[in-house]
Every structure is written in structure tokens, then in C-alpha cells.
Amino acid sequence: MKRGTLNSAMVAMAATVTLASAAHAGGFNRGSANLDGLYSDSIGVYGGVTYVAPGRSYTSVSGVRVVAGAAGAFTQGEVEFGDSFTVPYASVGGQIVDNVACVGSYSQPYGADSTYSGAISYHIASQSLATREFGLTCAYRHEMGKGRLSFIGGVFNEHIEYNQARNFNLAFGNTGDSKINVTSDAWGYRLGLGYEIPEIALKASLMYRSQTNHNASGTYTNTPFATLATAAGTPAATAAALYGANTSTTASTTASLPQSVELSLQSGIAPGWLAFGSVKWTQWSVLQSITLVEGIANQPFSTSRFFFKDGWTVTGGVAHRFNEKVAASASITWDKGVTTGWDTLTDTWTFAGGVAFDVNEKVQLRVGGAAINFASGTKSKTASAVDYTATSPNEWGYALSAGASIKF
Which of 23, 207, 299, 330 is most buried, judged by most C-beta within 10 A? Predict the structure, then answer.
């Protein structure tokens, strides 16, 4: 079957969509596995990285914290908390025998990186969620009419690492830090269908990625209570009530990361022109709260509350091939906010563009950029009298991406 004439444009499109999906989209979404090799008749290597600067902040914070054993109200002005991050991906694969293609992939599907300053760090000084996925996905391809139907399936291993720190008393910097580090591995799977007609650059796919269930374990450390009592004037009993009774012990928790379904479609619409779009549903409602417990007695000492709604991500765009070497694409992505008032993860709009350059028939280079608009939102829900509320303004962030592919 003859391959299409818009290959460069199609790859530029794929790079743009990857960029948009990585741009701090709903919940903790970041990137997805690159499976381009499933649609190739040759073996190829694909890779790239996206840098995202979300630029998130609170314009006002108010709440209650405990200092020297006594509760006191506080207010705080602007607090920047959205740390910049990078999202790499890599995959290798293609047709291995007649009608069968396989791809090995590396991606970072979820993540979060935040650092807080001032009085709010009593509640949360920093937190990070890092994930990495190693997957193997195969497709059985069957000629159907003018096109080719692919039955897709695969498995992946997902590793997560979660870190959290809280400051006990601001007057002594990090003297009272309470620190948590837990890790976990879980297995999941993906299933899908694909259909393509290369002559008109048509490709449609429906992909399902399963939920993953994690039993994470690690360590929990506290500043010695004697230090707190001497330096901060805080009774050991107060420190124990807030942060647990051990200065160093084990920590564990259970959590699930969501399943998702994505429908993608692209097609040539005129000579040298391609239109594309996708709709993705992610079951973020599976992530309600995470409670960490310490020691063999399983005493709770830290609860992160999310109570997310399910997320929707919708992308649409066009790509154009200018000549045999250069193609470009532009897209708009809307991501439905998942917040229910426990955070400020509201709607985002991403305006992205990408350019692809064919060095030769086997090597392609890609670059892209995006502007990200975050709608304003308010953290209005509190878990107890000792908690805080905050407001995030309408803000802009940006993302930059680069990638390459080599076919053999």
C-alpha cells in the first residue's frame, strides 16, 4: 500500500499535540506514550522533550497555623508555587513481521511540582509527584477496503515517587521540617483500534489506558522534639499531635491513578493540508484523597485532599506542508478543570504551534512552542479550623518542545 504524501505534516501535528497534552493539563496530566511506530512499515526511533513553565501563583492566602503550641490566623500576599518541569519521551519500533508492529516506549504520564514560601509552608512547603512509564505495545494490522485496520494492545509498568515537606516553625527556617518520601510500582495495560488510509493521510484511533493501583511505601522524618521544644518553645506533645510520634519511621499509603479513553482523528483536507483533532476523557474522580500513615501501627499523619472531577481534553488544529522539507502545524486545546474547591486546577487553554524539517527521507527534526492560559480559581474548601484558603488569578505560562525521529 502506497504511503501518504503528508508524512512531515503528520509528524509535526503529533509533536504539537504532545506539547499541548504535556502543558500542565487537567489533574496531573503531563505526557503520553509515543506510538507512531505502530503505523510505520519500517523500524524507527522517536524521542523528544518538552519544557513547561506554568507560572502559577496565589494572589492571596489566609488561614490558621500553630506556632509554639498556639493557633494563630495569618494572611499572605502573592505566592508563586508552580515549578517549571520537563517531560521527556522516547520510543522505538515499527513493523517487525508482516501485519505486526510493536513499539517499546518511555513516558512520564503524570506529575506535579510545587514549592511554597512564607506562612503557607506550615501547611505545605513543597510537594512533588514523579511518574515514569515503560511500555510495550503491539498492533495486528489487517487490510480493509482502501485502508488498514489495526488491533492494538500492550502492557506498561508505572513507577511513582511522591515527596512532601512541611515547616513546623517559620522563625527557624527548615528546623521543623516534616518530610515524606514514598515510592511504588504498578502494572497497567492499553487497548485500542486504529484505522488509516495513507493516500488521503487519514488516521483514526481509539485508545484506552487502564487505571493503576499503587501501594506506596518509604520514609517519614521529623525534627527531634527536643529541638522544637528548646528552639521554638513548642511542647513535644504538640509536635507529636501534628506530625506523629516518631522522628524517623516508615510511611505508606494507597492511591489510584486514573483510566483514560482518547479518540483521535486526522485527515487530508486539501493538497498539502491536514486537519486533526482529539477528545480525551480521564477519570480523575478516582483521586479523592491520599492519607499517609506512619510505622507499623499505621497512624495517619498527613492527608492530601483532591476530590477531583473527571477531566476532558479537546484539541483541534491544522497542519500544512510547504515543500518537500518543511511542514508546520497550529492547534488549540481546551482542558476542563477538575477542581471542586480544594485547589485551583481550573480550565486551561493552550495555543500551540510546531515546525517539522525533513533532513532526508529517514531523519526528521521538530520544534514547537505554546502559550498556556490558566483560568482564575479559588481554593475555598478547608479540612479543619487549622487550614487555609487561597485565590489564583488568570495567568499565562509557556512551553517549548523539541524532538526527532530516525527511520531505518
Answer: 23
